[in-house]
Every structure is written in structure tokens, then in C-alpha cells.
Amino acid sequence: MTVLTTPRLTLRRWREEDAPALAAHNSDPEVMRWIGAGTVRDEEQTRATIATIERLWEEKGYGIFAVEVRATGELAGLAGLAIPHFLPEIMPSVEIAWRLGRPFWGQGIATEAARAALGFALLNRELERIVAVVQTGNDASEAVMRKLGMRLERQTVDPASGRPVRVYEITRQEHLAVAAGQ
Length: 182
Fold this sequence. Notes:
Elements: E1 4-5, E2 9-12, H1 19-26, H2 29-32, H3 43-60, E3 64-69, E4 75-82, E5 95-100, H4 109-124, E6 129-135, H5 139-147, E7 151-157, E8 164-171, H6 172-180
Antiparallel strand pairs: 1-2, 2-3, 3-4, 4-5, 6-8, 7-8
């Protein structure tokens, strides 16, 4: 089972007991503001999402991790890899994504978790290119993308929500250059 550790975080596969904590984050309108159409999700929808995430792990050997704070064991949110089927024009692609509960905002946790997941994707799973899709206006997520060394590839519209999005990307070679410079 794949587990990543950072100075403050454990990124791991999902457990049954994670669903209520993730559902609490997903029920917060501010957390969900920049996700899809911006609608909240209940526990049943959250459990279905976790099941979909776990299927991707089984099929591809990668997916979205549960992000746990090592010092407390709290579920901060999620970070990892997904297939962005919602944006057909960039397919085939693998997307890096993250979502944290509001109590975990502004602490660098998204960057720390995303950096670990990005390294896993490009180095451990040897993927050649990773994208990140962000709704226009989500400045905090765009800042994380830039910290990861990602560059703007295009601007377009999410056909499902009608919202404008920006697509960032990074290649394995670019990631290695960024990592060498740190």
C-alpha cells in the first residue's frame, strides 16, 4: 500500500472512518466554492467519491490520497492524482488535485501535500506530464501550482459547469529541474 510522508503529513489510501471527516469538509460551501459547479456534497456522495478514488488506485496504481496531519491524526483533506474526464480537450491527461477543510487553510499544507503527490506521479509512477485545472479566481490554488513549478498551458471553459478554468502543466524534466533548484 502506497504511503507518502512529509514533515507534517501522511498521504495514504482511504479508510472507512475517513468518510465522515471528508463529508464535513465537502459540506462547507467555502471549501466547495471552486469545485465543479460549487455545490456541497453529503456523506453518501462523499462515500461514492471515495469508492471512485479507490477504483482508480486499483486500475492505475495511483489516485487521490487521504491527507492526514501526522501530529494529530486529523484528516485535513485530499491530494493526489485523478483523470480529468470533465475536460475532454486536455485528454489524455493525469491531473493533480487537492482539497482541504477550512481549518487547514493558510498553513502550506496544500503545497506540501501536492508536492509529495507530484513527486510520486512523476518519479515513482514515471508519468511524463501532469496537469492541474483551476477555476479562474481561485488564486490560492493557482499560487500552489506556481510553487510546484507548473506553468499556464491554456485557458478554457469547463463544459459541465460553464465556469472559466486555467490549465497548468509540468513535465517530469521540468519537475526534476525545479527539485534540483530547491
